[in-house]
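Fresh eyes needed here. I'd like your take on this protein's tokenised backbone:
***
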Amino acid sequence: MKRIKFTTWILIAMVLGVLVGYLCHAQAPSPEAAKEIAGYFSIVTDIFLRLIKMIIAPLVFATIVGGIAGMGNAKEVGRIGLKALAWFLSASFVSLLLGLILADLFQPGVGLNLPLPDAGAATHLKTGALNLKDFVAQIFPKSFFEAMAQNAILQILVFAIFFGFALASIRDETANTMVRMIDDLTKAMLRVTDYVMRFAPFAIFAAIAAAITVQGLGVLVTYGRFMGSFYAALLVLWGVLILGGFLFLGKSTFRLLRLIREPMVLAFSTASSESAYPRTMAQLEKFGVRDKVTGLVLPLGYSFNLDGSMIYMTFAALFIAQVYGVELSLSQQITMLLVLMVSSKGIAGVPRASLVVIAAVLPMYGLPEAGLLLIMGVDHFLDMGRSATNVLGNSLATAVVARLEGELTPQAEEDTAPDAAADSALPDLAAPALAAKQAA
């Protein structure tokens, strides 16, 4: 599908999903019947997300190994990694801080007497493993095949780094043959990605229809103030992230935003950052980021740079405190920020990872754990915004690191120059990057 046509189909699928979901909710004789109907829609969504998960592990492995073997320089890999982590930590801190400030400013939970959802709507979130020892241990894989089977990106990353350096150090014909095989694997997986993405509009329709069938449109009104405040906070965060990207990328930042519009819409409509991962890689390549930078920084970002999830953690925690009238001092809020900064890293593979961390932090500040149930009903709709923001943050991070490393294609480098013409980035966005890659 062409990019414009693909985006159009996604938007059509979202609208149809809302309409069909509303009709199913209105016609369902009981909540149990609505859940049963939604279950049939969820089959389509589950199949699509399974196909996405099928792609991610081999794609991450191939791109990282190919990138490192192509560099052949441990210092270069370490330098790129350190710059990426510096950006990730800064962006995470800013996101958490904005969540605190804007929740205090908007006061979405003050005076909001919402009934607690049914006790049966238990989340079954496991929070006991949120500690530094377990986090550090789980970075390193016990088995490469187990890591691939579980889509454990950090573990795949560790093995791929070792494997990539091993190939780079051998430097004989056998190693060169394996590198070429890895490059061919990357091309094949990108082609598989294109096939899977053709199924995306159907999955998006099913995901939206299932959520509306169960919750109805009324849930959007009931939680309107909380949701509206959070999306306003996301817009502020977008502005901050784009400004940070502009400082390094110049006017080409806006070209990057146009290119990643499609993966952002995909992540928003499926409420999954993973679903947009392959498409994000392709769009970063069109922007001019070289494969070796994308292959290293983007997988790291999916574990350490979930900006949308970061701002949600502090925002939701303060919302719960406001609903129950629990006053948190400035020092307590700052401490909460630091605790979330540490405890949130490395749990990207956990379903509803933001809720897991919030559930672990609430008891530390005397907040009732039942407060988590207040936001469970609308979490899917909030997760849509978080997922799109995660794609934006990781795309900007990857492009900025590439700019700092001088790993943008010549045309992209020209666009970042202060004296670049305003219209230089407008015509044929993909052609310069493609031509430069072929010349290389």
